Amino acid sequence: MYCLQWLLPVLLIPKPLNPALWFNHSMFMGFYLLSFLLERKPCTICALVFLAALFLICYSCWGNCFLYHCQDAALPDAAHDPNIVGT
After folding, report:
1. Which of 6, 36, 49, 68 is the most exposed place for a label (fewest CB within 10 A)?
2. H-helix or E-strand spanning residue 67
3. Could you tell me what percent of the chain has a pLDDT over 70?
4. Residue 85 pLDDT > 70, yes or no?
5. Quick one: how many helices (H) and strands (E) in the chain?
6. In its keyword annotation, does this UniProt entry include Membrane (predicted)?
């Protein structure tokens, strides 16, 4: 499970508050995962554990899924602050 230590931080990196940056964040994370899988070639168990964790986080709409934003999930309170998001 040595290879899992390089995949777990992907689940812990929060999404940006600014909705305009969500696409850039998801592309960066997707390219990171793709390059990691091609270069390091993690073992099957690590890959399955990571994909299961990613599926459960995205399926539950917990708010930290970097693939998409759930429609039912509300934006964080700080997202409505014009000082943070900007206009």
Report:
1. 68
2. none
3. 70
4. no
5. 4, 0
6. yes
Question: Quick one: tokens of 1?
Answer: 């499970």
Find out whether 38 and 87 touch, Cβ atoms under 8 Å. no
Instruction: Compute how many other C-beta atoms are within 10 angstroms of the C-beta atom of residue 49.
Output: 16
Name all contacts of 70-78 with Cβ < 8 Å and 24+ positions apart: 75/19, 76/17, 78/17
Element containing residue 75 per DSSP (H, E) = none
Say what the pLDDT of residue 78 is: 54
**How far is it, in rounded angstroms, from Cα 86 to Cα 80?**
10
Residue-wise pLDDT tens digits, 34-76: 898 888 888 888 888 888 888 888 887 766 676 666 665 555 5
